[in-house]
Amino acid sequence: VWCSDITYIPMKRGFLYLVAIMDWFTRKVLSWRLSNTMDVEFCIEALQDALMRYGAPDIFNTDQGSQFTTPRFSGILEERQIRISMDGRGRWLDNVFIERLWRSLKYECVYLHAFETGSELRAGLGRWIAHYNERRPHTALAGRTPDEAYYDVPTPSGPGLTPDQMANSNAVRRAA
């Protein structure tokens, strides 16, 4: 199951919109795009990139935003026989994994920097998303990163880590 959502990203002057596509099970960010408008085009670009790189999911979940309900967007999913799942109106908890991604991204990256330009923002988000996918362990993934979970890399001690093992694993990753 994949999910997608759009959030706004404040900058020193103004803001841009960010769309991301995430694998629900592993929390891996599969694709993302920035735009200065909320049109469907940047959502389609992110979707096509994810489909090209990772194949098609069984189910694609979004909110009921106009970008995701357009025939142009939903038609791509229907062509590939991907089941469309849409959250209830105003029910952010239905897409909680990507909402949590937005919180982490904003508090760990965006709010710590006053990005001046779209290019600076794109580079900063790229670094943070690479770190999130490749180096940031998740308790829900038994201490693995989203990439390790997506590519089914086993944890050093098997399926689950104790809190001490998790702390040591995090310290090793930070030192590397």
UniProtKB/TrEMBL annotation:
This is IS3 family transposase. Transmembrane segments: none annotated. Residues 1-154 form the Integrase catalytic domain. Signal peptide: none annotated. One of its GO terms (biological process) is DNA integration. Residues 154-176 are annotated as: Disordered. NCBIfam families: transpos_IS3 (NF033516). Residues 165-176 have a biased composition (Polar residues). GO terms for molecular function: nucleic acid binding. InterPro entries: Integrase_cat-core, RNaseH-like_sf, RNaseH_sf, Transpos_IS3, Transposase_IS3/IS150/IS904.
